[in-house]
Amino acid sequence: MTRTAIVTGAARGIGAATAKRLAADGHAVAVVDLDEAACADTVAAITAAGGRGIAVGADVSDANAVRDAVARVAAELGAPTILVNNAGILRDNLLFKMTDDDWDAVMNVHLRGAFLMSREVQKHQVDAGWGRVVNLSSTSALGNRGQANYSAAKAGMQGFTKTLAIELGRYGVTANAIAPGFIVTDMTRQTAERIGVGFDDFVAHAAKEIPVQRAGQPEDIAAAASFFCSDEAGFVSGQVLYVAGGPRA
Ligand code: NAP
User: Using one digit for the tens of pLDDT, what is the confidence trace for 114-148?
Assistant: First the structure.
């Protein structure tokens, strides 16, 4: 069945792959990112493959922007019942060097953003008596040097997911989290730059530590999101799936 999906942070990386995958699954997809123009490539790929997508510029941490964005999606594509909270940023630093802004910026995009988007979209999900929420956590939720802010936010995403599953289950809405390991995107490229390592070396080094001996690709995460968003996953809720090429947790 065709539904309307919103994927945040979908101009690139995991979000772009997930938006394309959900469109290929037959859904109309709103490609949401900070800069509407930056969503053009994802939308063009969806359209070229015969799907339906629109670009929507919104800062997910801004309540007014979120309200306007979800209203626009409902008007242009139909009531959104699938939500993938993927938008994310890094502000890595060791605790003693981490600024207030580093902390707040990460909390605002990951946690406040997922909260605002979910609160706005659940109205449409409850009306429809069906919905899917997928939240992007991370293996960093288990703790990671230099990421006090990010690991706290990604652990928070897991608690948030479980609570949504409990509150919204009676309305036919499931909520699940995906916790990726090392995925080749601009985000991991940024980490390599920060620590002064060439990206190819960084990826090769990471791959050696991963049981399947390769780094993840955005499509690996998109495939898991596709499953959680499917009709047949209706009895799977409140789960955290580590997609990391090996066991975690
Ligand atoms: P990415 O390539 O950096 O893409 C993230 C996207 O989110 C960017 O397009 C970014 O826009 C957008 N964004 C940032 N702040 C936003 C805001 N306030 N409102 C709307 N959009 C915003 O990252 P990625 O690697 O694909 O990561 C996607 C998600 O997976 C994130 O939640 C990340 O934490 C998580 N994750 C990634 C990995 C990994 O290895 N890559 C591992 C575990 C978890 P701008 O470009 O304009 O900033």
Answer: 999 999 999 999 999 999 999 999 999 999 999 99
Helices (H), ranges, the chain? 13-24, 40-48, 63-77, 100-106, 113-128, 148-168, 186-195, 199-209, 218-229
Q: Is the CB of 206 under 6 A from ligand 1?
A: no
Question: What is the pLDDT, as a whole number, of residue 249?
Answer: 75
Q: Is 71 left (phi over 0), alpha (psi -120 to 50) or beta?
A: alpha
Q: Which atom of ligand 1 is nearest to the CA of 218?
A: 26
Q: Which domains does the chain have, with CATH numbers?
A: 4-181+217-243 (3.40.50.720), 182-215 (no CATH)
Number of separate helices (H) and strands (E) present in the chain: 9, 7
Identify the helix (H) or strand (E) that includes residue 88: none
The values of phi and psi at residue 90, to 5°, are -115, 140
Residue 25 tokens read as 């699954």
87 neighbors 33 (Cβ within 8 angstroms): yes
Q: What is the value of pTM for the model shown?
A: 0.99
Task: Report yes or no: 54 and 105 within 8 Å, Cβ to Cβ.
Answer: no
Measured between alpha carbons, how far is residue 9 from residues 20, 75, 98, 208, 239 in Å? 13, 21, 24, 29, 22
For ligand 1, pick from 60, 85, 86, 109 the residue to mutate: most ligand atoms within 8 Å of CB. 86
